[in-house]
What we know:
Elements: H1 2-10, E1 16-21, H2 24-30, E2 37-41, H3 44-53, E3 57-59, H4 69-82, E4 92-97, E5 101-106, H5 113-120, H6 126-142, E6 151-155, H7 158-163, E7 165-167, H8 189-195, E8 201-204, E9 210-217, H9 231-242, E10 246-250, E11 255-260, E12 263-269
Parallel strand pairs: 1-2, 1-4, 2-3, 6-8
Antiparallel strand pairs: 4-5, 6-10, 7-9, 8-9, 10-11, 11-12
Amino acid sequence: MKFIEHCLDLEENVSVVYVITDSSRIVDQLRKKDTPIIVATANKRLYNELQRKGVPARKLGYPLRYIDILTEAKNQILGAYAEGMIKSSDSVLCVIANKMNAIIMFNPGDVGITQLKKEMKGRIKIAVAEAVLGLAFEIMKEGREGKRIGTLFIISDSEKVMENSRQVIINPFSGHDEESRNILDRGNWETVKEFALLDGGFVLRRDGVLLSAGRYMNIDWGISLQSGLGGRHLAAASITMKTKAIAFVVSSSGILRIFKNGRIIFKMGG
């Protein structure tokens, strides 16, 4: 198959091969070389087989949509980055082999990772940004109690954020030691996912310590947002306009938007 032969030739020039396919035959052919491979599939049997073989795999909730294949592929690469499977320094060969075949070469700049890091530099620690991104992506993908949910993370400039917000429920993080409420510890993520069901948002210090959940941001009703964006986005725009915080907004429609200075600097999904 000439398509696979071409992919194998290109493998020599990349550090990671990211394959979107439901075919085990395609995976076996692309594993002939030593280049690390990641497989994204909606085929449950293939996913389980790869898990048994120790091949890094991502389980897709739906087959690849071909309406905008470039956007879909970029979202896949971003998802793998958010899950720690791809590094920002990697050069990625994305191979799509399902109903149609396509090859796309990516570097961090192509999917916005490099620019996003520049935008957030000096505001929050990059390790914290990557942790929140990974957690936000899991919430987008998994939802809670069988349905998609939305939530809001406000990071950095926490004193001013607290001054410009109010607690609407008893703060579930109050009184707990910092280690048990630091977002950098993946062991704390399940707790955060449970609290994501609450109204309001999360407030985090620059170093990743969770200060509060269920907190409402004071809204600036003079801010204008594009049609279709709701209260969480308005809260994110308002608080980042008033402070030096960065806001991550997960919408129930499965889209992540990141705000700085009252504007959207990054969008993923959709």
